[in-house]
From TrEMBL:
Family named by the database record: Belongs to the Gfa family.
PROSITE patterns, sorted: CENP_V_GFA
UniProt keyword Lyase present: yes
Sorted UniProt keywords: Lyase, Metal-binding, Zinc
Zinc listed as a keyword: yes
Name of the molecule in the record: Aldehyde-activating protein
CENP-V/GFA domain span: 3-111
Amino acid sequence: MQLAGRCLCRSLTFSFSGDIVSTGHCHCESCRRATSSPVTTFFCVATENLAFQGDTLRHYASSPGVRRGFCGNCGSPMSYETDKRPGIIDLYVASLDDASGVDVTQHGFWNERVSWLHCEDDLPKREG
């Protein structure tokens, strides 16, 4: 699969070629606060198959062993990496130029979801 995406200001772009490792809607408080959204949708890929172009991806250590990447110009959230999954990077589905080929397969941190958003689908819902 080949995918491409960008930040809001277009100064940071990425391209990916290969298999998607996993996908999911994350409901954890940390992702909600990092994106100011009630839920964040990720696709996870091998870092060796990903290339960023343009401005340098900046990082924020949001918790021990976790780096969140963002555009240093416009602040758009771009990535999530954890020491628990070396060689894997999570990217935001909403940053893709065309997300039509990405099928989301699960909900994560269902126990941390906001009460006012109702998700009615048949996807598996993991606690934590």
